[in-house]
Amino acid sequence: MNAKTEVEGSTMDTVKLALAVLMLAGGIAGFYYYEGYSLLFRVLGLLAVAGVAVAIAMQTMVGRKIWAFASDSRTEVRKVVWPSRQETIQTTLIVFAMVLVIGIILWLVDMALMAIVRTVTG
């Protein structure tokens, strides 16, 4: 009995997602079809259609999973300890210095290899 309910739920979810995609495609098509009207009204209409499409998509299992993921991501971002301005500047300067040092080392290795190649080839 549960398997049948899950199959029906997934079928309805598919129908809802298809309806949301069709509404969004229709909204975009309408945006360009009514090109002669004010841009403000076209944008507002597109936003309204997109809002309804998102509301329909949120009624599906996929929509709820995406919303849960976004909510969990927001929670995790709040837990991050962001570096101070001084730490950011110091780290940036260290990166620049290391890039310069490695660049000089690679230049010296290139010069040595070029001298070896010139010696060997005459």
Description:
With 122 residues, the protein is mainly alpha-helical. The chain folds into two domains: 2-79; 82-122. The protein has helices at 2-33, 39-57, 61-79, 85-121. The radius of gyration is 29 Å and the shape is elongated.
Short description:
The chain is an all-alpha fold and 122 residues long.
What is the strand content? under 5%
Q: Could you give a short account of the major beta sheet? A: none
- What Rg do the Cα atoms give? 29 Å
Order of H and E elements:
HHHH
Globally, the shape reads elongated
Whole-number tally of structural domains:
2
Quick tags:
single chain; mainly alpha; 122 residues
What is the strand and helix layout of this fold?
Elements: H1 2-33, H2 39-57, H3 61-79, H4 85-121
Helix pairs in contact: 1-2
